[in-house]
Specification:
alpha+beta, 403 residues, disordered N terminus
């Protein structure tokens, strides 16, 4: 398998199964259970939205009290904005799986995605479990990626193999997300596993570090979900010496492979942004620090005026200039700001570049992948954010979402 091969590799110690529970969608699987081998380490990060969904609250609680044996994921219903009943429903779903699987409810982590404000149909989930638990398969990653989709148009599944002490280790992950994407921890939902043996604390720091450079550096529409969650499991089935700290010679290889999978999944989410026609990279250089660079990048990436111009292939560079100017950078010297579309410089010394031609900007904007590059001329810090355009379909999809 090459370093860029998007095909999947099963992860020893992980089995998956899906079923159609009729939660919201008819004629498709909308329930996934991921089984984790005993002795595995598990790391997770969750949304920081104050209205976090019931399954997020319960999953965080369960992680404090037990090592997970199962992940229970449903699509079509977010079980968010549902109060105490939502917590009871999430726990009842975990209990139903635990009773069937012979474990404690605390060993089940629940995850949900879909419409906010509707109660979870626990009875449908419980009714689907007997059939589902009878068909666990280590190779079921592709059907699992489809089962967690909502407004996604394609499943998101990526793998990498890497070497540890002469053995081939594996990282495989799935994710879902197309709208309400501006993660403040991870992404809509992402589940990643490796067969490497990793100490739980190191696994957690690995996940946080990687998420900050991948899932936390993308935006479709600036909306952070109530249900965002990302899980990284290390089964230890490879049998390698336990990776205990960042100084371990195997840590860099693990980190690189996990980041490659997460970067691929994050990019896939933006490519599949609701109604998106273009993949856009906003690169901000020359900032005082990383936070400043990110602030400018997100000001551009979140601008509806910039995003609609991207859809129209209109090189209306004044919209980009205005976004940089309102990013809140103290004492910004506009005469040191340069802006380019791809290799075409459009702004230098705070104004239109003398050699800029509209047809050159239009040619860049017509491409399916676009680079917006901003140099602030203030320092050495850099930030990169992936985003997409806003099309007519984005409005249609979100206007019709509950119909």
């Amino acid at each position: 398998m090459s370093a860029t091969d998007p095909s999947f590799l099963p992860v020893p110690g992980i089995r998956l199964a899906t079923a159609g529970a009729g939660i919201r969608y008819q004629g498709r699987d909308d329930l996934l259970v991921l089984e984790i081998a005993p002795g595995a380490a598990c790391a997770a990060i969750f949304t920081r939205n104050a209205f976090r969904a019931a399954p997020v609250t319960l999953a965080r609680h369960h992680l404090l009290h037990a090592a997970p044996r199962y992940l229970l994921i449903n699509s079509g219903n977010a079980n968010a904005g549902t109060g105490q009943r939502g917590l009871r429903d999430a726990l009842a779903s975990c209990s139903a799986l635990a009773e069937r699987a012979g474990c404690r409810p605390e060993e089940v982590l629940p995850f949900s995605t879909g419409v906010i404000g509707e109660h979870l149909p626990v009875e449908r989930i419980a009714a689907a479990l007997p059939e589902l638990l009878g068909r666990f398969d280590a190779s079921a990653w592709p059907v699992a990626a489809r089962a967690i989709m909502t407004t996604d148009t394609v499943p998101k599944l990526r793998s990498r193999s890497f070497e540890l002490r002469g053995e081939r280790a594996t990282v495989t992950g799935i994710a879902k997300g197309a709208g309400m994407i501006c993660p403040d921890m991870a992404t809509m939902l992402a589940f990643i596993a490796t067969d490497a043996a990793v100490e739980s604390g190191i696994l957690q720091s690995c996940l946080q570090s990687v998420a900050d450079r991948s899932f936390n550096a993308i935006t479709v529409d600036g909306d952070t979900s109530t249900n965002d969650a990302c899980v990284l499991v290390a089964t230890g089935a490879l049998g390698n010496p336990l990776i205990r700290d960042a100084a371990d010679p195997d840590h860099a290889a693990l980190l690189s492979a996990v980041e490659a999978v997460c970067q691929d999944l994050a990019t896939a989410i933006i490519r599949d942004g609701e109604g998106a026609t273009k993949l856009v990279t906003v690169l901000v250089e020359g900032a005082v620090d990383h936070d400043e660079a990110r602030r400018v990048a997100y000001a551009i990436a979140h601008s509806p005026l910039v995003k609609t111009a991207l859809f129209a292939s209109d090189p209306n560079w004044g919209r980009i200039l205005a976004a940089v100017g309102r990013a809140g950078i103290v004492d910004l010297d506009i005469e040191r700001v340069d802006i380019a579309l791809g290799a075409t410089r459009i702004v230098e010394a705070g104004g239109r570049a003398e050699d800029y031609r509209e047809e050159a900007g239009a040619a860049v904007m017509a491409e399916p992948e676009i680079l917006i590059r901003v140099s602030l001329g203030r320092g050495e810090a850099v930030a990169r954010v992936l985003t997409c355009d806003f099309s007519y379909d984005y409005v249609r999809i979100n206007a019709e979402y509950r119909s």
